[in-house]
Amino acid sequence: MELGGFYNMNVINQNIFYIKNLKVILPVLFCSVYCFVCAQTKDSIVEQDTINTKVINGDTIFIANLPAVTIFPPREFSNDKEFQKYLRLVRNVKKAYPYAVMVNEKLNEIDTELSKLQTKKEKKAYLDMSEKKLKDQFEDELKALTITQGRILIKLIYRETGNTTYYHIKELRGSFSAFFWQTMARLFGSNLKSKYDPFGEDKDIEEIIIKIQKGQI
Length: 217
What we know:
Blueprint: E1 23-24, H1 28-40, E2 44-48, E3 51-56, E4 59-63, E5 66-67, H2 80-114, H3 120-143, H4 147-161, H5 165-173, H6 175-187, H7 203-213
Antiparallel strand pairs: 1-5, 2-3, 3-4
Helix pairs in contact: 2-4, 2-7, 5-6
């Protein structure tokens, strides 16, 4: 992993963090001119097999969807201590991020199954069973997380699901359980109501996640 490989985000637009699999047709400058021309002319879209084309004033133009490219300028560190701090953040995010993805998948799965059940008794039984299965499968791994990794995980759960960990506990297990676990978390300096700010205090974490997704770290 090269030192120069850590970058600050230079996004195509301010919503790039929240839109998955964002596609861009052409580079930004050409796109701007192209859209202006399209707005001034009456043209038609023609689909030939799997190739999209646009006819403008009799000329056929090929249209391709290209994946968004995020460019990071070189990151500079004022000293070795700052660099080591960043490396620790990379390790912690790489440890916590897979669990946040898993939580999102499990919540979607649970929501789907709960929607099929009719009575509170059936739903409670299903939640109890699901909780036991998850506990048996992940308890030892989650206990091995450090406090810092746990705090990052709480933030990343918000990133993946759009809601806080506190909200999810309250929805699934009730207000008392949410209050209890929030109290316990606060004793360890954490907050289950923590949100995620990819443009502010969590921008370094967001950068690392994008690099993980692209296989760069």
